[in-house]
Amino acid sequence: PTEPANPLLRRRPTRPPPPLAMEPAAMDRIAARLSAVDGLYFPTAFLRTSPPPETRKSALLDLLSRDAPLFLERYGAALRPDELAPFDALRDDYEVGWHLHRLVTQGDYFSEEAMREREPYLHHEYLGRFQDPFGRAMVRPGEKFSETLMRRAEEAVIVEKIRGEQIRRGVDPSEWVGGPVERPMMGQ
């Protein structure tokens, strides 16, 4: 067949689209971190012993290279936001896009409690200092006494982290979360 005289109507040679791929360094970082996570699901989890971290890393890297949607389905909830960013290169893949959307919108990563646990000092600086500190200590409706005690213990750990960061940054003790610590007087 002959080509049309009008250049706009001529068929251009078609090239396959460039393959969707993540940066190998990002894949390696993700696989390395996840391989060290205790209790992470592995298809061989029915074995009595957990595979060594090197084996887990190579299995994670292989799955990530071979089937990113399955990787996100299995391990997406264990990824941090900075680890989700490299998956943007694969966003055009419908399944990858769907998993990324689900992880960002439905996950609890951006809930106030999750942010407070992750970065206690930043949460305190931007939100916590404007909230009633006694509200967190109150018993919640339907909460068991043991749950209240556990929540208060977790709260004490978070307050200590905030206070440690305030001390490290040189914040005036009068502005410390929970007020300044009273130290016993020596020699009386």
UniProtKB/TrEMBL annotation:
| Segments for region (Disordered) | 1-22
Q: Which Pfam families match?
A: CCD97-like_C
The record ties this protein, via InterPro entries, to: CCD97-like_C, Ccdc97-like
- Looking at the record, the residues that make up the CCD97-like C-terminal domain are 99-170
Q: What is this protein called?
A: CCD97-like C-terminal domain-containing protein
Q: Which organism is it from?
A: Aegilops tauschii subsp. strangulata
